[in-house]
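Team,

Forwarding the record for the chain on the shared tracking sheet. I've put the sequence and predicted structure together so nobody has to dig through attachments.
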Amino acid sequence: MPDRDLQIETSLQDGVLIIRASGTLKQGDMPAYFMENSSLFTDKAVIWDLRGCELGTFTYEDSKRNLYAMYTRVKMEGVTRIALVCSDAAQFGVSRMLATLSTVRDFPAMVRAFRDMAEADAWVRSQGGDDSPYDTF
């Protein structure tokens, strides 16, 4: 279950599920949210807006556990793209780690880190193009 310090709001905008988080994001919060709110994930594109968050302690192993925990739900719901929108270098680094792990671990959705909401929105709506998990910092 996500930490009570973490506040999450969701909205659906033209077929894209946007999840805005604020407060402290800790290891396990993202997969817990996926599992507890599976009815929201009926669309193929998801944007996690992490710009209002502070990150708790995340390690490489934490990131792997997060990704594995989300794997089944993402595959079942048919989510194909997940954009992680970040405001600072720490968020961007953790998000890139998740994106990189998603390519190595055969994750069913493409995951990519962004610093700009408009770029993230354009990417999740696209039908091809750059599927690399890397973005410039």
